[in-house]
């Protein structure tokens, strides 16, 4: 079970170089339910997500590099590429800040994952977060893959 | 975790009409690891199996009919079609007896699933079972999809 909120960000808010950064590429074989392939640095995985917005059931299953490259030939729409910065917050939560590359640039999205729904509902976003798009399917990566 | 043994069968051993029968079609998006789509009567699912022969980790995840038909356009090799008869044994175990259709006919395979490895190793097959092909990748459905 994954409980998260997602926000648009209008501009890069501060120097990101001190933060952990992973290069991610991902594509979709199906969007309802989500069947996604992803390369996250040197890790390759297949992800299945049941339907839903804030709360979704998620399985992350390992792929070999070869099976990833094979499945990548089967994706619908575009391959999404982004740099993901992990920014710790004072309350112990972490922001995953996605800087999209390629033809989705200069899109910026911030996601925060929560241990439970109460924490998610009580969350006060930092001032540099923009519009809350948690309940908008428009900024799902699966939608962005088709945009 | 799935623990099973698989046997070739040379001919249909007795009248199968009293037994529960499901019509199955399945295809593969990847073989190592296995990423399989399957229609089992009116159920549609995506299956992931880690690598291995007798013991494999397996996840069965629901698909809609639409997502199944979409993913079916992406399979490698042939779509496997078969009728699966479930035949109970006196010891409480069940035989899944697969009668392959299409260009894999007249192939017949019997599979028995076990609660643990000791039961699997102690299993005495019925006289109508042929060659034990548990440890042969040749009769994996993923191999048959490419044959």
UniProtKB/TrEMBL annotation, chains A, B:
Active site, UniProt feature: 28 (proton acceptor)
Gene3D superfamilies: Hypothetical Protein Pfu-838710-001
Domain CYTH span(s) in chain numbering: 1-146
InterPro entries: CYTH-like_dom_sf, CYTH_domain, NeuTTM/CthTTM-like
A UniProt-annotated Pfam family: CYTH
Protein name, entry field: Adenylate cyclase
């Amino acid at each position: 079970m994954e409980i998260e909120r997602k926000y648009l960000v209008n501009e890069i808010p501060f120097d990101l170089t001190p933060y952990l950064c992973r290069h991610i590429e991902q594509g979709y074989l199906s969007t309802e339910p989500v069947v996604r392939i992803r390369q996250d640095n040197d890790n390759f995985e297949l992800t299945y997500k049941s339907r839903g917005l804030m709360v979704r059931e998620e399985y992350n299953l390992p792929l070999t590099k070869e099976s990833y490259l094979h499945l990548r030939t089967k994706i619908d729409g575009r391959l999404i590429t982004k740099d993901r910065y992990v920014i710790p917050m004072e309350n112990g939560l972490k922001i995953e800040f996605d800087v999209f590359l390629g033809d989705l640039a200069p899109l910026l999205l911030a996601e925060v994952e929560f241990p439970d729904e109460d924490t998610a509902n009580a969350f006060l976003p930092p001032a540099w977060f923009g519009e809350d798009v948690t309940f908008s399917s428009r900024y799902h990566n699966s939608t962005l893959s088709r945009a």
